[in-house]
Every structure is written in C-alpha cells, then in structure tokens.
Design brief:
Rossmann fold, 306 residues, alpha/beta, 12 helices
C-alpha cells in the first residue's frame, strides 16, 4: 500500500468499531442510501426551532422563532451526489442556528444517477434564488446569506457560488466548504493514498459518484469546480479537510487558487482526519476542534458584514 498519513488515533478506533458495509457501487447503492439519511424530527424535538417546508423548490426552513434580519445559512448536504437528503449532516448548521441565531435553509436536490450533469447544481442554485427572493418573509438579511455544504454538498456549494458570480445572481456573503468534493479527475496524491479504507469514502467510491453524475462530453466547471479557470471575485471562503482523506489535495489546491486570484480564504487541514470525521464522530477531540473553529470563523464573518 502507498505510504500515507496516519489516522488520528481516536478516529482510527472509532472507524474500526463501525459496522461493516458493502462497497459503494451500482449494485449496492439502493442498500446504502438509507444510511445517509437523518431522522430530523428527533433532532428538533424539544428545541425552540420553527420549521417550514417549501415544496418547490424542495426546501426546509429552520430558524429561531420570530426572527428579523437574521443571517442565513443555505445548507447543501453530502452523500457523494448519489445519497442523502436535505437533513443529512443537518446537526452541523443547527449548531450555528443555536449559537448565532441563523436561519438555516436546507435543499433537497435530485440525486445521481437518476439526475445527471448540471441538474444537481441547478437545483441548488434555484433554491438559493428562492431564498434571496423571499428573504423578507423568512426574516433573513439578504446581505448575510452564507452558502455551506459538506462533501458533495461542499462541491455543490462551490458550484452554486460560481453560478451566482457568473450570472449576477444572489449576493453571497461567504461560502463554507467542509471536505468539499471539487474535482472529478480523482487523480491527486491523496486520492491515491486513500484508494482503500478504512474510511467512509475511498477513491473507488469517489469514482463511482463522479461516474454517476457526469454525462458524455465536456464537464461543466459548475459540476467540477476545480476546472474553473478564474477563481477571482468569490466571497470570503472557508475550506477544511482531513489530512487522511481523498479530498485533501484538491481542497488545498482550491484554497491556493483563490489566494492566487486575490481572494480571501481560510484553510484548515485537520491532522489525521478521515473524510467526514466530524459528522461521523462529533464528540471526538479533533471533531470538536473543527466545529469550534468553523463556528468562530462564521461568527467573525457575519459580524464583518452586519
């Protein structure tokens, strides 16, 4: 096996205790999809959080009661573009709702392979446009909308931010990309180092995810944001990843290119972090540190744009 960075010892123990699941592929996708969903009612029970479900576009609005001019986090879930729903990893932005008084809007985009090409990112962009157009009735400050997502959702968040820039669309105050899935080429050193587990997302799983969404012909940079030639004019950006995951190098490269284009980005690579470590194991020491750091960054950014 290719030499690779070690896992954080606590995460390695937790990974070893996970129940074995089959490798992701066309024959196992239906079996694995239920594992990527979250029982949101249990998370919301007993918490002073209002909820509104919007049928078209498919959104759920979660917020403190009776807010006005609140910041908004537009959340895009992970799942390799083939799994998950609007409530996947929702505990992450719910923490920002409670700590920062943010309204959280989460989107259900259509999944691959049933939907392909730019369909997924266009679904997410449509939802963002709806939020901006309905900001007043949602109690949202249109100048403080943050686009955020994890894994595939981080990649889609990057694509949505590029679409907003290029189409003169809704103003985005910041983008927050957690272990984002940015590059369909899947050929970095980190992707080869983590071609196999342990871990929840390997190079083979990544290849399947990308193969499921891509159509024949040129790949859109809104689908695979690493292809974007010009990363200037983007809002301030937060990117983090683990040192022990497939997406490490493409995420570092994206932050580096934002800096080279004159933009502002904050980058964190968490030593020993596997992909999705803080979503899988939120009480692990490194996970708690990652969550605190993201929240601190978001607090500073929202204060700057208030």
């Amino acid at each position: 096996m290719r030499t690779r960075p070690p896992y954080d010892p606590e995460l390695r123990t937790l990974l070893a205790a996970l129940p074995p699941l089959p490798a992701l592929g066309p024959d196992t996708l239906a079996q694995l999809r239920p594992y990527a969903s979250t029982a949101v009612d249990r998370l919301l029970e007993g918490r002073p959080i209002s909820r509104r479900d919007v049928p078209a576009p498919r959104l759920t609005v979660l917020g403190p009661p009776d807010v006005t001019a609140a910041p908004c986090v537009y959340w895009i879930h992970g799942g390799g573009m083939v799994m998950g729903d609007r409530f996947s990893q929702i505990d992450i932005p719910l923490g920002w709702l409670e700590a920062l008084g943010a309204v959280v809007v989460t989107v259900d985009y259509r999944l691959a392979p049933e939907a392909r090409g730019t369909t997924l990112v266009e679904d997410c962009y449509e939802g963002l446009c709806w939020v901006a157009a309905h900001a007043a009735e949602l109690g949202v400050d249109p100048g403080r909308i943050v686009v955020a997502g994890a894994s595939a959702g981080g990649g889609l968040a990057a694509g949505v931010t590029l679409l907003a820039r290029d189409r003169g669309g809704p103003a985005i105050a910041a983008q927050l990309l957690i272990g984002p899935m940015l590059d369909h080429r899947n050929d970095s050193a980190s992707s080869r180092q983590f071609a196999a587990g342990p871990g929840v997302w390997t190079r083979a799983a990544n290849e399947f995810g990308w193969r499921s969404v891509l159509e024949d012909g040129p790949v859109s940079p809104y689908v695979s944001p690493a292809l974007t030639a010009d990363l200037s004019g983007l809002p301030t950006t937060y990117i983090d990843a683990g040192s022990a995951e497939v997406f490490r190098d493409e995420d570092v490269a994206y932050a580096t290119r934002i800096w080279a284009a004159g933009g502002q980005a904050e980058l964190h690579v968490w030593a020993g972090g596997c992909h999705g470590f803080d979503a899988l194991f939120p009480r692990a020491t490194v996970s708690a540190a990652a969550r605190r750091t993201r929240e601190g960054w978001l607090r500073r950014v929202l204060k700057e744009v208030s």
